[in-house]
Specification:
PSTPO5379-like; about 280 residues; homodimer; about 25% strand; PSTPO5379-like fold
Chain lengths: ~280, ~280
């Protein structure tokens, strides 16, 4: 059995468990070597401005997939991905406020909806781990700490606001290496947006994240901040969309696109087979 | 005077000449170190599908800027870029057919139009030249040869069709190097889509390009093919848009975004100054 076939079996089992609502936890560390994605689902009325927003802010919002309007199958990201069921946990926003969570949104899906997939930091985290740089929220099986900042994003239509970042405490002598590794993954937020001084980007207390779980702040470590795919969840509040659905932070869509792909598309040959 | 100030003076003089219709030639070799862009202008009715098409085909269509609907100022790409006047030569398509050319489209601009800027191979050509790899269409001051292929693109809405590629004859022992250099520029088509065998991608005669000028085919050189931003001009024919405007191949928009930028946006600080 090839490594790809082995991956397909693993991913298929995991996807079925998520689809049935049996797996509802975060997805850090799962399906290593493949892109995971933040998700935003909104009415087609807002889709063009949201795509502009992603194009203008590719570090927090690296767009790796966009569904056809009304089609819940995200066929560019995998052979059988259904965005209504294939995320472990969803956030549902109404008029910009978090109105509930769900493990399935089949009853909310409608013909006017468009789903957007944005690359995720799990991709470069795998590369950090492979380089022997410890990532404590993975070691401790918690959700990465995320913070609101005062870094402005570039606006598009109703979408505007400050960037959300995720934080990792990196051994100070390896910060340069961590920057270089993450820069190799532009589809997964690329290099950090800030290193070292949380106050400079408006973070008062690194021990109290706005999303996710706190992490230890050990000596001889430096806080490093990467643009985060939760940024749209803050921006949606500002835009006050009547209805919008996202993943629950940390609970991602698992795609079938290798994380070192130049193009975030599952390409098929002329016979329709994956190539 | 800093290098950036010097660039601003050069670019400003060139832009004014283009704007007044005095410079109408191709832009290869100009404003080195800054992104140049292929342009597609279409009604907002088609904009979402066209953005999806670009997202699904980032090698031929690396999206580096999208205007606000009806706003001819492409403010994310420079302090004073007006898409109605700042391209040396435009192609105008009606019902999918080339209906004319112009050096100014002020009379065609309308409130429903959206302009899209796609990265351009001039970026990696500068890097090839700096590495001492000769690029003969630049040396000879001609337009790069471009060809239709049989490589399918990933469809979105009415946009579908085969990829257009540009060709460079590379000294055979330096092909690996040329691939590695171009791969560093994902906003400028990235690595080649094919090396060596034109017939394998449906090109009958490399001496007869579909766009641009023929180049010499010297011994000990290998034809290398990169995805090309003229692809949308072929795709527009298939989509039969009632009206669509593009740049004339080789005659690009010159932006103020450095070609090694991680983010294709002219970022400003909170005081509105370029940073």
């Amino acid at each position: 059995m090839t490594s790809y076939q082995s991956f397909r079996r693993e991913i298929e089992a995991l996807r079925q468990a998520i689809r049935r609502g049996e797996y509802t936890s975060h997805t850090a560390g799962l399906a290593r070597g493949y892109l995971q994605a933040n998700i935003v689902i909104a009415s087609v009325e807002f889709a063009l401005d949201f795509m502009r927003y992603c194009q203008r802010n590719p570090k927090p919002c690296p767009l790796i997939g966009v569904s056809d309007t009304g089609n819940p199958k995200m066929w560019t990201l995998g052979a059988d991905i259904d965005i209504r069921t294939d995320i472990p946990s969803y956030n549902i926003f109404r008029d910009g406020e978090l109105a509930g969570t769900a493990t399935d949104i089949a009853d909310l899906w409608a013909d006017d909806l468009v789903a957007f997939a944005l690359g995720c930091s799990f991709t470069f985290e795998h590369a950090l781990l492979e380089a022997g740089i410890d990532v404590s929220h993975i070691t401790n099986d918690t959700t990465v700490p995320m913070f609101r900042t005062n870094i402005p994003t570039v606006p598009a239509g109703p979408f505007r606001g400050d960037m959300v970042v995720s934080m990792r405490m990196i051994p100070s002598q390896r910060v340069g290496e961590a920057i270089a590794i993450s820069r190799r993954y532009p589809l997964a937020h690329g290099s950090p947006v800030h290193v070292g001084n949380p106050e400079a980007i408006g973070i008062v207390d690194v021990r109290r994240p706005d999303w996710g779980d706190p992490v230890p702040v050990p000596p001889a470590h430096t806080p490093v901040f990467w643009a985060c795919g939760v940024t749209p969840q803050a921006v949606i509040r500002n835009a006050r969309l009547p209805m919008c659905i996202t993943h629950k932070p940390g609970h991602m869509l698992i795609t079938e696109v290798p994380d070192d792909a130049e193009v975030p598309v599952v390409l098929k040959n002329k016979q329709g087979e994956l190539r």
